[in-house]
Every structure is written in structure tokens, then in C-alpha cells.
């Protein structure tokens, strides 16, 4: 296809504003243009691929569109991950296209992720077509939202298209706007190959599938290509596009978007943002700005039942096949036995991985307190990265510690602003900006990431009844008065509960932790001291008194079935207990103890 007839775009939106529904509509509308047979074929192809278990990324799709002017265009829509944890991936994939549809729910207005994503699009020099979605709903306020887009984002919204992705209103106008308002890509067919690696995922039949945007040159089946970040060579065995089913084609030229397969075993070998060129007569300079995404939040994952360790290892390896940003290494804990120290892009990424392990792979897990990566400056002038509070060196050798900070943007209705400010203040935040857009406030805070990884999202949601939206980016490291707090149960340190805290907040955290543990640890036949300590100094203490009674004693002899039920329950509960010295701690105790309120 010649460049003038290609349009490449992405859709940026806040979660739930209708990105997927709109993408489906665009595919449907253009699929039906070619008539019924075409549509049936297309669906057939999809069914076959489904049966074979091949992943279809329906949101990355090549659409053939004949515009009202009679010209035939190829429209390439690429999907971008929606969540803040994947901001780097978003920023890379934005550079693979020239324009964006900015979808805003006309009943809601601009939200934090609308802003974060549209700023990425602006940074990538995109032309932007604003779309007001859900105009079929009575609560739709297109005029107000247009104004808000102009006030808050600062782009012209007078030409915004009124759309209902549900009923199909405005879909044709959207396709015309893509053709007429978004620029055609540029590229040189005769230059050495430069293909940007936009995305990649693991497929159990085909191995790794790599989505590329050709910047210059031509990519053909059979080519030997090189990943410029690490020099690895691959033989391209398949090239194609998504319609949305996979369709092989002979070559991909400048401006085009499609996939390649090359018997690549793991997504780890395909870094988003990397440049792919030919092994021979390749480009000598990679596309600018490549940096592999690095995990910023770490935690330990341990099987509740030590016998599940091998299963956990298998599952983690499988998961890592398809998730290059997830890292892991084996860890042993005195308290929890064998497990893994895992690294994530953020808290949501952590939750997604933990959920999948528990649900898809059916393993009960203990998750230790999430921790950020600290920079520990030693007295001898060296610096160590600390991924696990348990590895904290002796303070006498430490000069100072630095922690990662973030810039957080929160949009919230006026009436909850006070609570949000208090929450941010409580989490050692420094206010940087406060502006209004209609009845919503936008606050920007500089916060320690450490204070956000615990339960910031949850707290924010609860104090604003779900009306706040939140987004953040890492800004850098700063020194602060940070210490390691240990928890001792019956005088034995429980390594899985140790955490890094700010010195001023240590007492409060320590007290909250021991009080909670006192409620969570079942009483034993002996007295159990529960302490929080910094170094050798105890900063909080509770004592769990001894128990003498049999649990079944409260059944007053009589009811035998009830007695047995209780005993069964007790047995089931036992399985989820971990032994710490002489003390048994239920798994829930860890989970609850690690939440704060
Ligand atoms: P994520 O996939 O979660 O990021 O959300 P999304 O932005 O892709 O939104 P999605 O397309 O899943 O739509 C969110 C919800 O809004 C769904 O329940 C849709 O059915 C609904 N929806 C989308 N567009 C419209 C619309 O034009 N009108 C109405 N009434 N509902 C819509």
C-alpha cells in the first residue's frame, strides 16, 4: 500500500469509557461494507483460530476502508495497555502511530487516565480526534465535556464527534475523520529496514508473536533479522496482519503494521520499543528512546503448602513466558520456606499476577509486604539496590538510604477534596498543584512510592466513594529517614513481616501491626509476646494471653455433629497455618497484617 493511503492510530481513553466497544464497531462497520460473505469468512477464520487456541488481539487490527471520496484506505488500529503500570509500553506504542482517537464518556468527562494517556499521545506528536461517546444515554452532556476537554487538556474540541459505540451513531463520521484528519505515515522503502517492536505475546502454537511497525525498508518472509538492543538473530518464518484474524502476507513496507513469527521462545527476547533490522545491510542506528521496562515493586510469593513449591515454580515460569516485565528469583525465608522474590511494574501488575497464579494455576499463596527498590548508600561509598527488607545491611555500615518518589495526579469531585488532601498528607505527600475544572479538582502530589504500594488505591477509592481517578509516574530517588522494622513473635523474628518504614511513622506502623497480629494469631497454651523493633530497640509490644480450653468445650458435650464440624474446620484451618517456632500463624494473619488502615 502506498503511504498516502495508510492511517495508523490508537484509541486513548479512561477505563470503561468505551475503547473496546468503539474498536469492535469500527471493525464491524468496515467488515460489513464488503458484504455478507466477507463477514462470514472473517468470522469463520476467527473461529478456526479460536479452536486452535490462538490468541486474537482484536484491538490490534487492519481495516480496509473505502472512504466517501471513493479512495481505498488501510487503517491500522493498535491497542495500548490502559493502566498506569504500563505507562512505558503505552509511550512506546504511541510512537508507532501518527494519530489518536480520544474517547471520553460524555456522561462522565475527563478522568485521570484520560489525561495520562492523551498527554502520551501529545508527546508522540499525534493528531488527535476527540470523540464523545455514549451520547445515547440521557445523562450525556456533550457541550460540558467539550468545554472540559478544552479547559483541562487544552486541545480544540469544537470538531468532536458525537458517538454511541453502542447504537452505531457517529461511527461513519469517525472513519471519515480518521482518513481526513490524521496524517499519513512517512517512511523510505529503499532505506535499511527499521521496524519498531510494538508488542509481543506468547502463543502456545506459534511461539512468540511480534507486532511491528515498519518505519523504513521492507520486511519479507524468510528474512534474517536482528534485534538491535542485544544483537540476537532470528529467521522470520511468517509475516502477516490482523483482519482481525491472522492473515499471512508477503511483505510489510514502510508505514505498515503487522506481525512476524521467528521461532522465538520467550517474550523476554522481544523488548517493546526495540528496533528490528536485517542481519545484513541493516540500519546502523536504532530508533531513539529504547529502554527496557524495569520492575519497581517487589514482594515474596510463597506457597501456603510447602508441597506446592514445584507447582509454583512451573506456574511462575509459564507466566513469565508471556510477561517480560515480570521478574523472579528463588528466595528462602526462615518463616515461609521456599518461594520466589518477584518484581512488578506496579501494584496492579502484582495483583494481576497473584490472581492468575491463584486462580488459573490453583495455588494458595502467601504474599509478603510489597516493597519498593531502595538505594542503600554504604559508608564505603558503594550503593546497593535493596529489593527485600530482609536483606537490609547492618545500619552501622550504612550512610544513608534513598527511596523512589512519584508524581501522582488525582481528579476528584470537590466534596471529597479534603479527604484526598488528608490522605496524601498522611502518606508523606508534598502538594505540587491544585486546579479546578468545573466541579472537579485536579491535585498533583509528590509522594513516596513506598506509601502508595500498600493500599493507597483502596483508601482513595473508599474516601471518595469511587469517584476519584488516579495516575502516577516515577520521578526519581530522594534521601529520607528510612529504617527497617522487624516483627517478633514469641521472640522470633518473622522475616516475612519485616518492612522498610519512615522513622517518624515507625511507632505508629509498629503499634498497628502488633495490635492486629494480636487479634489474628490464635491463642496458644502459652503466653506469646508480639513485638515491633528497629534494630535491637522494641518500639511496640502486645502480649497474647495463654489459652487453656479445648475449642470443642463450648459445645456443652451434647451435639456430636457440631463437634465434628468444628474439628473438621479446625483441621482445614490448620492446613493454612504456618509454623513459627512454637507458634502457628494463619495465612490470613499475613494478608490482614500487611494491610493498613
Ligand atoms: P476497558 O476494556 O475496561 O478498558 O474499558 P473500555 O474503555 O474498553 O470500555 P468498554 O468498551 O468495555 O465499555 C465499557 C462499558 O460501557 C461497557 O459496558 C459498554 O457496553 C458500555 N458502552 C460503551 N460504549 C457505549 C455507548 O456508546 N453507550 C452506552 N450506553 N454504553 C456504552
Automatic annotation (TrEMBL):
Its EC number is 3.6.5.n1. It catalyses: GTP + H2O = GDP + phosphate + H(+). InterPro entries: EF-4, EFG_III/V, EFG_V-like, EFTu-like_2, G_TR_CS, LepA_C_sf, LepA_CTD, LepA_IV. It is found in: Cell membrane. Residues 4-186 form the Tr-type G domain. Keywords: Cell membrane, Elongation factor, GTP-binding, Hydrolase, Membrane, Nucleotide-binding, Protein biosynthesis. This is Elongation factor 4. The lineage of its organism: Bacteria, Pseudomonadati, Pseudomonadota, Alphaproteobacteria, Rhodobacterales. The gene is lepA.
Amino acid at each position: 500500500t502506498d503511504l498516502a493511503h495508510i492511517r495508523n492510530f490508537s484509541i486513548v481513553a479512561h477505563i470503561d469509557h468505551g475503547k473496546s466497544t468503539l474498536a469492535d464497531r469500527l471493525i464491524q462497520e468496515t467488515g460489513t461494507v464488503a458484504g455478507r460473505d466477507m463477514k462470514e469468512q472473517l468470522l469463520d477464520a476467527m473461529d478456526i483460530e479460536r479452536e486452535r487456541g490462538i490468541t486474537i488481539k482484536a484491538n490490534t487490527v487492519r481495516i480496509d476502508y473505502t472512504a466517501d471520496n471513493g479512495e481505498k484506505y488501510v487503517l491500522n488500529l493498535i491497542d495500548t495497555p490502559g493502566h498506569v503500570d504500563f505507562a512505558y509500553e503505552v509511550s512506546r506504542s504511541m510512537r508507532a502511530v501518527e494519530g489518536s482517537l480520544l474517547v471520553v464518556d460524555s456522561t462522565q468527562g475527563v478522568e485521570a487516565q484520560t489525561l495520562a494517556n492523551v498527554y502520551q499521545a501529545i508527546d508522540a506528536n499525534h493528531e488527535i480526534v476527540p470523540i464523545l461517546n455514549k451520547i445515547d444515554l440521557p445523562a450525556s452532556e456533550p457541550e460540558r465535556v467539550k468545554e472540559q476537554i478544552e479547559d483541562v487538556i487544552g486541545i480544540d474540541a469544537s470538531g468532536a464527534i458525537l458517538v454511541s459505540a453502542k447504537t452505531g451513531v457517529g461511527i461513519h463520521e469517525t472513519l471519515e475523520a480518521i482518513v481526513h484528519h490524521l496524517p499519513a505515515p512517512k517512511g523510505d522503502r529503499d532505506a535499511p529496514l527499521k521496524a519498531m517492536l510494538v508488542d509481543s505475546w506468547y502463543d502456545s502454537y506459534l511461539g512468540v508473536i511480534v507486532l511491528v511497525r515498519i518505519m523504513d525498508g521492507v520486511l519479507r518472509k524468510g528474512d534474517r533479522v536482528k534485534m538491535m538492543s542485544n544483537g540476537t538473530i532470528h529467521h522470520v518464518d511468517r509475516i502477516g496482519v490482523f483482519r482481525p484474524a491472522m492473515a499471512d502476507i508477503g511483505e510489510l513496507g514502510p508505514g505498515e503494521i503487522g506481525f512476524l513469527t521467528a521461532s522465538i521462545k520467550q517474550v523476554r527476547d522481544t523488548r517493546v520499543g526495540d528496533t528490528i533490522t536485517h542481519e545484513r545491510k541493516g540500519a546502523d542506528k536504532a530508533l531513539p528512546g529504547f529502554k527496557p521496562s524495569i520492575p519497581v515493586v517487589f514482594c515474596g510469593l510463597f506457597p501456603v503448602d510447602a508441597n506446592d513449591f514445584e507447582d509454583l515454580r512451573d506456574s511462575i515460569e509459564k507466566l513469565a513466558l508471556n510477561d517480560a516485565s515480570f521478574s523472579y528469583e528463588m528466595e528462602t525465608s526462615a518463616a515461609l520456606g521456599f518461594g520466589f522474590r518477584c518484581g512488578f511494574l506496579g501494584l496492579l501488575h502484582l495483583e494481576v499476577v497473584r490472581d492468575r497464579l491463584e486462580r488459573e494455576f490453583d495455588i494458595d499463596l502467601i504474599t509478603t509486604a510489597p516493597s519498593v527498590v531502595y538505594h542503600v548508600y554504604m559508608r564505603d561509598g558503594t550503593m546497593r539496590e535493596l529489593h527485600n527488607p530482609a536483606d537490609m545491611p547492618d545500619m552501622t555500615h550504612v550512610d544513608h538510604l534513598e527511596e523512589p518518589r512519584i508524581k501522582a495526579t488525582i481528579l476528584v469531585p470537590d466534596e471529597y477534596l479534603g479527604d484526598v488532601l488528608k490522605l496524601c498528607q498522611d502518606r508523606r505527600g508534598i502538594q505540587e498543584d491544585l486546579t479546578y475544572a468545573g466541579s472537579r479538582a485536579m491535585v498533583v502530589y509528590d509522594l513516596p512510592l513506598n506509601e502508595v504500594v500498600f493500599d493507597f488505591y483502596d483508601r482513595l477509592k473508599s474516601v471518595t466513594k469511587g469517584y476519584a481517578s488516579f495516575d502516577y509516574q516515577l520521578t526519581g530517588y530522594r534521601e529520607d529517614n528510612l529504617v527497617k522494622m522487624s516483627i517478633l513473635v514469641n521472640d522470633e523474628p518473622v522475616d516475612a513481616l519485616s518492612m522498610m518504614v519512615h522513622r517518624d511513622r515507625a511507632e505508629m506502623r509498629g503499634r498497628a501491626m502488633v495490635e492486629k497480629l494480636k487479634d489474628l494469631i490464635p491463642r496458644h497454651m502459652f503466653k506469646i509476646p508480639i513485638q515491633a523493633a528497629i534494630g535491637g530497640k522494641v518500639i511496640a509490644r502486645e502480649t497474647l494471653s495463654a489459652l487453656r480450653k479445648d475449642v470443642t468445650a463450648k459445645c456443652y458435650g451434647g451435639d456430636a455433629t457440631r463437634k465434628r464440624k468444628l474439628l473438621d474446620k479446625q483441621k482445614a484451618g490448620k492446613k493454612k497455618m504456618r509454623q513459627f517456632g512454637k507458634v502457628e500463624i494463619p495465612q490470613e494473619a499475613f494478608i490482614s497484617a500487611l494491610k493498613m488502615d
